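Lab notes, practical 5.
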Amino acid sequence: MFRRPAPKFRRPGRPRRRTALLAVGALTSGLLLIAPQPASAANLVKNPGFETAGTADMPYCWEKSGWGDNDFTFSTVADAHSGSKAMKVELTRRTEGDRKALITESAECAPVVSVGKQYDLGLWYKSTTPDTSLTLFRHDTTAGWQYWTDLKTLPISGSWTEATVRTPEVPAGTDRITWGVSVYGTGAVTTDDYTMDQVADPIPDPVCTGTAEECANGKWDVLPTQNPVRSMHSVVLNNGKVLLIAGSGNSEEMFNAGTFTSAVYDPVNGTYKQIPTPKDMFCAGHVQLQDGRVLVMSGNKGFPSADGTIGYQGYKDSYIFDPVTETYSKTNDMNDGHWYPSATILGNGDVISFGGLKEDSTGSVTAERWSAAENKWLPLWQVNQTWSYWGLYPSMVLMQDGRLFYTGSHTFGNNIPGTGSAIYDYDANTTTEVPGLQRKDERDQSASVLLPPAQDQKVLTIGGGNIDSNPDANRLTDIIDLKSANPAYVAGPPLPQGTVDLGNGKIPQTGNQGKMYVSTVLLPDGKVLETGGALHNRANPVYESSIFDPATETFDPVAADPEARGYHSSAFLLPDGRVMATGDNPGNGSWNHNVSIYTPPYLLKGARPTITSVIDNEWTYGDTQRITVDRPIAKAELIRPAAVTHSSDPNQRFVDLPLSVDGNNVDLNVTSNPNLAPPGWYMLFAVDANGVPSVAKWVHLQGPTAMAAAAEDAPSAHEHSFADSLEGKVKKPGKKRASAKVSTAIAGCDRHYGSVNVCVPTVFPDEVKKTTAARCAWLKENDYGRLKVNGKDDPLRLDRDKDGVACGKGDVRRR
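Output from the prediction step:
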């Protein structure tokens, strides 16, 4: 059937077209003009050279496909690589869409495949355009035919050239595939002599190098050297080191003293180097720029007042951290203050940011845009504005067509109005609600992740709570397929349960208890580790970790981090394939400086493959790059390094690199779409058939020079028309306004008690009775101790004897 990828660029206000499909139905033997040719001995493609005629002006077992506003022709020509016929597809005018000749989507013609296997595809071609892609579709036994992935861009060639590529492992539920060459720019592509062979997969038996328990579930080690700073921001740098940003570390004493800290951790030798830090970057935003520097935006201008009349304030300052000099330098100011802003890198290297608190503690409704070309924040009038308050750390994931998906994950309190998730089109400046997110107002500090590979455009959202109402955090998961015409969340499997510390030791979780403060980490074997969390607002750590498999949409419980990892904790992937976890800042104001390292099971299966050489570490879109490996691998991918805080890293992504294999030489086919892999430095992993990854090599995708002056024959992005039929409520920009009202207790802390570092919850968990004795017992169990009462108000009735100290002996004796 005709497929409808999306336009490369969309101008503001241009409507999305819904074009008629031009599919050729399945052919029957009664319609054949000539008896069909059998596939050759190993070749799974029928009529691979177009020699057998069919119907509708197409060869047997081939159909016309494509979509969009373009002028095109399909023709069988005599200019063949072998035999007497070849297929020519030409676009003479194009506004949007593509055209392609595909193997017919029928049981008679589409090759049968086996789940988990890989296939080598090949063809001969001539091309006058760089805008081509070898595109696959798969037949799901439940959902029918659907787009699978783009594998390879074909360079311009005036003479017959062979192209080969290896598919990813066939997903579960797939029984057949079809494929062909998409043409999505003006020009012509002529193809002939298609081949498809199943890859022989001799898999060596894994050799367990740990205990049986470790080999099944991995292991955690707590490092002997503590993190010297109260870091709540973790950024993996393109030299393999980790930037740990604390600012004041949520300490008013350090803030008042002007003591702001960062550290650079070196995983190779286990050392820390403390870095002079110019401002309080506590709860800032951050993202890696395309050249490897780290953009750090806003932070904490001031702590709340003791009487609670003033909340947190965000400043306008912005800084860049240079991994080479390990120093910060100031940029121009943002247009607004943004304490807790989002930060998403776009396909052209720009950064877009939403939400957070302004300098006056109100909610910022100002969208900010960092220009990669100008190396600065753009003035307000150059940035499209919705005048919407997106909240704090709203998780905004870049989609393959350049739009942004707000996943519903955020920090503090309730979600935005509406369904709690939405698609934002910056060019059109419209927001469309997306349905299906369960209990949208209990997704505070849930985690969202673009599942591997990014080409699949699926997002998983895990857990969450609500610090305003303080219920038990949930174990909900939701999955959305952004490839759907009208995407909606559907319920995923419940999060596995672990143990929870309610103040008197660890006990098993029960009922629907889950966790907030979740960390999710993309792993090089194509799975996702979720770890850390707590049951309530800055209290009751949950000890549970599991690995999610996107192929089966199941969780597998694994070893749990022995350290509490709640508020202000994070976990992230290191270049050697291990996972590092840091932080924890419970409501009593303490800090966990211990660092944990997780060794996943794939590192306990014996020898690892090695990338012995990378011919070039400067990569461009649509390119083919060669590496050598010491033994066979099943896949390779780029993983964008982490920039994580508060369960949020919307830029984390795993980009599949289709393979063309010749012994130990492996050609990697790089996507032509910068929205799938925004420019920057990536970790390159090679993974064997047992899921064992190499140590990563660092490669730089589309450097600034290449971005500014791309070669004339560089391919355009092959984007698809996913999410093009949204049925949700569409909102255009609202009325211009200065800010949104936000409670000064936005952080869920009652400032009438203790210091600003201490977070006495405004609402206690449901199981805590509303008596002074019960509340004081809960505070004691969570190590708060006696608390000074700030001012004369006592809203939680903790100072019954009016001596200015909460939870004293006189308070708990009184009824």
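Observations recorded by the TA: Residues 153 and 668 are 11 Å apart (CA to CA). The longest strand covers residues 187-198.
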